[in-house]
Each structure stands twice: as C-alpha cells, then as structure tokens.
C-alpha cells in the first residue's frame, strides 16, 4: 500500500504550553491577585515563604478546576469560536488525560495548602474547586440562565482563602470581598455574553441574552452595577477599611454604573439587539476588569496607610 | 514485543500510531521535540514540588518547631 504523507496527520502529542493552557492562565491572574490581597489585608503575620506557597496553591487549585472545566465542556468548546482551539477540542490533549491532570493538581493544591497554612484555608480551597468544577460547570452552566449569578461564587473564594491562610478563620471583611466579586461577576459576564450570544446559542448554553433576550440582559447589567455601589463602600461604612478605600470604591463604582448605563441605553432594535456592534458592552466588559483591580488594590493600599 | 535494547525508531512511537503509515522525518522530529518539552516540564514541576515541600518543612520547623 502506498503511503500518502499529504493526507496522513499523525498524533504528535501536546506542546508543554498546551498543559499550561488547560489551567486557564488568564483567569488565574485575577484569582491570584484577589487571593493575594485577601492574604495581605488579613490581620496577623505569615512567613513570606508560606504566603508565597498559599498564593501558589490558590493559583494551582483554580487552574486544576479550570482543567476539569475544560474536560467537561469539551463538547461545547468545540462549537464556540472563542474556545475551539483549546487543547482538548483541538485534539492535542486527550480528555481523560485532562481530567486526571485536573484531579491530581486539585489534590496537590489542597494538601500543600493544609501543610503550609491551616485546615480552614485548605477546606475553603477544596470547596472552591468543587464549587467551580461541579456546582457551576456540571450542574448550573447548562441548566439555568442564572448560571453565572450562582457560579460567580466560584471566583469569589480567593480573598477568603487568602485571609484564612493568615488567620485560620473567616472574618467579615473577606465575606464582604467575596460578596463584591459575587455581585461583580454577572454584569462582567453578561456584558461579554451580549456580544458573544451567538456562540452561546450555538453551544446550547442558556446564558441570559440567549434565554431572556438582550433587552432583559441590559437591564440586569445596570441593576447589578447599582447594587455594587452600596456593597463596595460597605467595608468603609462598617469601619473595616479607611477613607482611601471608601473614596476609591465610590468613584470606581459610579464609573462602572456609567458604563453599564451605556449598555442599557445602547442604540438597539425592537428586540434589544445592538445597532452599534455592542460597543458599550465591550467597553463595560473591559472596564469591569479594571474596576475589580482598582477595588482590591485600594483595599491593599488602605491597609498600608 | 520489542527487545529492551532495540534502537528501532518505531519502538519509541505511541502504540496507537504503530499500525499507521510511516512518519516523515519532519513529523518524527516534531514528535520527539514535543515529547522532550513535556519531559522537561514534568522534571521542572517535580523539582519545584520537592523544593516547595522542603521549604515548607524548613520554615514550619524553624518558626513553630513542628510541622502540624
């Protein structure tokens, strides 16, 4: 039989970078940042080496949950433009390999956290992995348009873990930081979903714009941004942070409301679909990342003042 | 089964590829390059893990006099 090299595509295996891509490095950067701030603002002392290990464990746990997410979502990832080149749908890594990788890294991150800090931090880390991989990915994501509302909790755990790593318990400030990230997630993701609704529809994911329409989503983005105003200033009002944080939170929250108002008042057709290629939604999505960054950075600076 | 001291290139290919047409030299080189990269990554990860456990142990024993 003649060998046709032109049509024969051998399985060459994954690049090392593919295994790193399974950990969703872009998501990890935000998780590491909020986790580090939680650790930094906590009262008490932690050895810098143990602090570095704790942050590493938060990153590793988040990455492991991301790998399990990619394993479970491989079918819908193959359908969406944004995710079609991920290592599993692209055929560079086998699904079972990715699952094993995610589970092993999850166990290592929790054990290392327990070893370096305490059982409370390790338990919260373990629960956060379970929350993202099972509650959000396997249970909610494909079942309800409120997926991102409840699923937002998954990304809100890092400041709590960081705090617990230092103190050994969970206080009011980390709970408020958790709540801020929890309420920040829906307008952040719905802004993205407004201009990626076609992809989500194709993959059969019941994101809010797909199920309830763009107009309803725009209203929800605005409502959540309004809720964030009192929520973000509450640590200052309750005396848990100083005026610097309070001022930064108030100003950045009002700017975020302005961006979300832009999403709500965007030029649209009868069904609420944008006539401006969702320019305001893109701007609100971009600003939402800066907004969270400013809030947490202000919290850390406030601790120094 | 291939003998342990075999130097045949096909002995080092993944089993799933055994029955398929021959690989070109470029494909073989690319396969080797990727596998080498993965092995180095694994080596680095294992070394980092050992160092981290050692570091945690040293700090905890030095600061608290006990591991747990």
Structure characterization notes:
The complex is a heterodimer of chains A (about 300) and B (about 70). Chain A is an all-alpha fold and about 300 residues long. Chain A folds into 2 domains: about 20-170, Tetracycline Repressor, domain 2 (Orthogonal Bundle), CATH 1.10.357.140; about 170-305, Four Helix Bundle (Hemerythrin (Met), subunit A) (Up-down Bundle). Chain A contains 14 helices and no strands. In chain A, helix 2 (about 25-40) runs antiparallel to helix 3 (about 50-70). Chain B is an all-alpha fold and about 70 residues long. Chain B has a domain at about 25-65. Chain B is built from 1 helix and no strands. Chain B is rod-shaped, with a radius of gyration of 21 Å. Mean pLDDT of chain B is about 75; it is low at about 1-10. The interface between A and B is medium-sized, with 22 and 26 residues.
């Amino acid at each position: 039989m003649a060998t046709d090299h032109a049509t024969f595509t051998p399985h060459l295996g994954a690049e090392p970078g593919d295994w790193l891509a399974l950990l969703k490095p872009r998501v990890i950067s935000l998780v590491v940042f909020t986790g580090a701030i939680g650790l930094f603002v906590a009262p008490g002392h932690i050895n810098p080496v143990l602090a570095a290990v704790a942050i590493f464990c938060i990153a590793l746990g988040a990455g492991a949950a991301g790998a399990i997410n990619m394993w479970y979502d491989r079918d819908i990832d193959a359908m969406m433009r944004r995710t079609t080149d991920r290592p599993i749908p692209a055929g560079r890594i086998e699904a079972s390999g990715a699952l094993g990788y995610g589970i092993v890294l999850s166990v290592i991150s929790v054990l290392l956290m327990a070893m370096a800090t305490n059982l409370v931090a390790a338990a919260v880390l373990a629960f956060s992995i379970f929350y993202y991989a099972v509650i959000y990915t396997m249970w909610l994501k494909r079942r309800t348009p409120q997926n991102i509302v409840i699923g937002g909790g998954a990304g809100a755990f890092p400041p709590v873990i960081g705090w617990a790593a230092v103190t050994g318990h969970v206080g009011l400030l980390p709970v408020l930081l958790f709540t801020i990230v929890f309420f920040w997630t829906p307008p952040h993701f719905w802004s993205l979903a407004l201009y990626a609704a076609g992809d989500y529809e194709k993959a059969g994911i019941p994101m809010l714009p797909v199920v309830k329409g763009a107009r309803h989503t725009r209203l929800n983005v605005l409502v959540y941004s309004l809720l964030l105003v009192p929520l973000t200033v509450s640590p200052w009002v309750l005396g848990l942070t100083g005026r610097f944080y309070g001022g930064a939170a108030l100003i950045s929250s009002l700017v975020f409301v302005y961006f979300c108002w832009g999403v709500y008042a965007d030029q649209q057709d009868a069904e609420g679909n944008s006539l401006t290629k969702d320019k305001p939604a893109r701007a609100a999505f971009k600003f939402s990342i800066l907004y969270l960054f400013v809030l947490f950075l202000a919290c850390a600076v406030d601790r120094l003042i | 089964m291939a003998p342990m001291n075999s130097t045949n290139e096909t002995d080092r290919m993944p089993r799933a590829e055994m029955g398929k047409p021959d690989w070109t030299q470029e494909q073989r080189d690319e396969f080797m390059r990727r596998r080498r990269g993965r092995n180095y990554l694994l080596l680095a990860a294992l070394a980092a893990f050992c160092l981290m456990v050692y570091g945690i142990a040293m700090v905890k024993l030095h600061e608290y006099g006990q591991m747990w």
